[in-house]
Amino acid sequence: MPGAAKAPPPTAFFQKAIRVMVEKKGSDLLLKVGRSPTVRVAGELESIDLPPLTPADLKALAEQLMQPKQLKEFMETKESDFAIGVPGIGRFRVNVYWQRGTLAFAFRVIPYEVKTIEELKLPKILEEIALKPRGLVLVTGVTGSGKSTALAAMVNHINTNRRVNIITVEDPIEFLHRDLNSIVNQREIGADTLSFHAALRHILRQNPDVILIGEIRDMETLDVALKAADTGHLVFSTLHTTDTTQTINRVISFFPPHQHEEIRHLLSTALQAVVSLRLAPKADGSGRVPACEVLINTAAVRDNIRDVKAQLNIPDLIREGTVQYGMQSFDQSLMRWFTAGEISLETALFCCTNPTEFRLQIEGIAASSDRTFEGFGEGSSDRGLKTKPGLEATRTAKPPPALGGGDASGVSRDPFAR
């Protein structure tokens, strides 16, 4: 009809939801039928002021975002992972899936800018690890703990400081790297290669110095990673494990029992480092900081990896290797953030490995460092007692928001993407 208002496109809700997420400095956008679009901001879910979504809304969005080939594969496999760019807004990793017979989407912000290790407030030892000539480096943590962001920072450090050939195999490609001092070839599953297995089968013929495998999902992928590291390549990958001890156990468990002794010996020589991540909410609510456990494969660590009984000593080796090797436990990392006033006591206790021991250390610090006495005269009681500013506040802070759940540098208040 002449003069009639033009109807909004069927996916106008998506454009608005994406913009709201960016404006709120969110990290994730969740879409499902029967609910308004929901964003995750600093780990917490918030609904967007839009009508509940219909099956037709999400069907139209899937047809808009996916290529015909992707749609066909999605209908067959019921799952799809890919990355998109929204002009003027940003890049996003997308997962599409079915739930109760209807479509659902999860979007994760991918920043255009790759932040440095220093900007992410990660331990400086990660810069040294990134410049090692060979070995396997595993970055671990739960979903949304910053694994991809930390890996991207380490690749960027190599790209800036070394002249090497870097090949990545990802599903999908998240952070985009341009050639600086190094050559960076990024291969995406489905677009550039059929599968992780297909890519890794030929990767050593592509003359790599550094290999990044997006995620170790099976024995075959791990076997290639271990052997590539053992033959002189620097290999990076991720695992969904929570700490270094669990990581070592998970690596070995990929293989059948009769190979465990052989794999322990191979891992003891191939491993360079394990970096495990947890994100802790800041005390002022402005974002999160990385609690980081770092294991360096020293001679003592190698002996412990080979000996299944001695492996229990690895947490002690981490705590004792701080000064000489740059290792640190989660609790040591959290203690630094707490004493710097960045996180509350409740958050530190929630995130730490041994809450009882951590609390005793805090009380020891308070007794020895946080109080001064201005008078010891008769009747002075507690009038001369002064508590370090902020200590009591951290003890009465509100419970921490949920950990994990995604975040993104450049857009979110958190510098991590995964």
Q: What is the structure about, briefly put?
A:
Helices cover 36% and strands 22% of the residues.
Give short descriptive properties of this protein.
418 residues, alpha/beta, 2 domains, 7-stranded mixed β-sheet, 6-stranded antiparallel β-sheet, 16 helices, 36% helix, globular
Regarding quaternary structure, what we see is single chain
CATH T-level topology of the largest domain: Rossmann fold
**Helical residue percent band:** 25-40%
CATH uppermost class of the largest domain: Alpha Beta
Main beta sheet: 7 strands, mixed
Describe this structure in words.
It is a single chain. This protein is of the alpha/beta class. The chain has two domains: 12-110, Beta-Lactamase (2-Layer Sandwich); 125-338, 3-Layer(aba) Sandwich (Rossmann fold), CATH 3.40.50. 36% of the residues lie in helices and 22% in strands. The protein has 16 helices and 15 strands. The chain has helices at residues 12-23, 55-65, 68-77, 125-130, 147-161, 196-202, 219-230, 244-253, 260-270, 299-306, 314-320, 322-325, 330-339, 345-351, 355-369, 391-395; strands at residues 28-32, 38-41, 44-47, 79-86, 90-99, 102-110, 135-140, 165-170, 183-188, 210-213, 234-239, 271-281, 288-296, 371-373, 385-387. Helix 7 crosses helix 9 (260-270), helix 9 (260-270) packs antiparallel against helix 10 (299-306) and helix 14 (345-351) runs antiparallel to helix 15. The radius of gyration is 24 Å and the shape is globular. Residues 1-8, 370-399 and 402-413 have low confidence and may be disordered.
